[in-house]
Amino acid sequence: MNKDIKGLCLFLGMIGLAYAAILVITMVFTGVKILKSIVFISAFSSFLVSLGLTSQVKQRLVYLVKQKVTSYK
User: Are 20 and 35 in contact (CB under 8 A)?
Assistant: First the structure.
């Protein structure tokens, strides 16, 4: 995939995740029930971020997550 497209996917994904975080904060303080929207936006944004990452970065992230999970056991 082209580097420009990967960068665009990362940018849009991070904006989407930030928007989902703002929605979570709004939901916590106001009590508005927008959980389905938050889940959809988070899933789509995570997909965009994963498209923009290289395979090396994905492998490092998976390794770090596995390392953290095993340290809690």
Answer: no
